[in-house]
Amino acid sequence: MAVLNNKTTLVTGGGSGIGRATALAFAHEGARVAVADMDPRGGEETCGLIKAAGGEALYIKVDVSKSTEVAAMVARVVEAYGRLDCAFNNAGIMPKGFVPTADLDEETWDRMININLKGVWLSMKYEIPQMVKQGGGVIVNTSSVAGLIGSRTGPAYIASKHGVVGLTRGAALEYAKDNIRVNAVCPFWTSTALTEPYMQQNPQLGEQMAGRTPLGRQGTPEEVATAVVWLCSDGASFINGHALPVDGGVVIA
Questions:
Q1: Number of H helices and number of E strands within the chain?
Q2: pLDDT digits 0-9 by tens, 50-89
């Protein structure tokens, strides 16, 4: 039996990469999927893939850094499906270049924090009241290995991803009494549209990143999606406030 049969799920950043893979995995496990993304083309493509496989999907255009749009996103899901059982707050960006702390410009800092951190907070801000109202739910946030360990460059990205882990743990404590579980996934380098520009600039980067993992390879969006589906399932019913590395062992190396 599908582990999310008849559940309503929401994926932000669902138009590509890890978000798309997770939206497809949710649908494969019997869930209705609301695919939220800034890019209508990518979001509609994901919905088309779900529908072509016999699933049910809805596209919602959203900028997760804007409270009015996030509130409208959650309202649209509830209007369409009546409830919200699982939310994967995945929308995020990577820096155009990794620079030291003192060299980072303020505009880049603000944009990174607004999307990667504020966007997760706003999503939870509007998802949680609906889940409280209906008697429970599950939230999974996308952090990163960069949310668990340090790095010599990329201060805004690192700060945003550490912040997601903190938000996750705080919300997990606050809303456990309301039957809401909140966890995070922390992927290492995964081949997606976000990482592709770096690969084009440095064709050896993929091999270098693979060499950093004890398993000796990069991860895939589908592997992260599998972790998210499990965290949303009853199989993870006693997992709360956890930041799960999906990293081939980088954090322990």
A1: 9, 7
A2: 999 999 999 999 999 999 999 999 999 999 999 999 999 9
What does the block give as tokens for 152?
């010599």
Token pair belonging to 133: 């109202």
pLDDT in tens, 24-51: 999 999 999 999 999 999 999 999 999 9
Please tell me the total count of domains within the chain. Answer: 1
CA distance 50 to 71: 24
pLDDT, tens digit, 9 for 90 and up, residues 177-200: 999 999 999 999 777 776 666 566
What is the pTM assigned to this prediction? Answer: 0.94
In a domain, 56, yes or no: yes
Residue pair 195/218 in contact (Cβ under 8 Å)? The answer is no
CATH number, domain at 220? 3.40.50.720
Contact 50, 27 (CB under 8 A): yes
232 in any annotated domain: yes
Task: State the alpha helices, DSSP H only, in 106-233.
Answer: 106-112, 119-134, 155-175, 196-201, 205-212, 221-232
**253 is a domain residue:** no
Structural domain including 190 reads 8-246
Residues recognised as catalytic: 157
Contact call for residues 115 and 93 (beta carbons, < 8 A) = yes
Instruction: Let me know if residue 178 belongs to a domain.
Output: yes
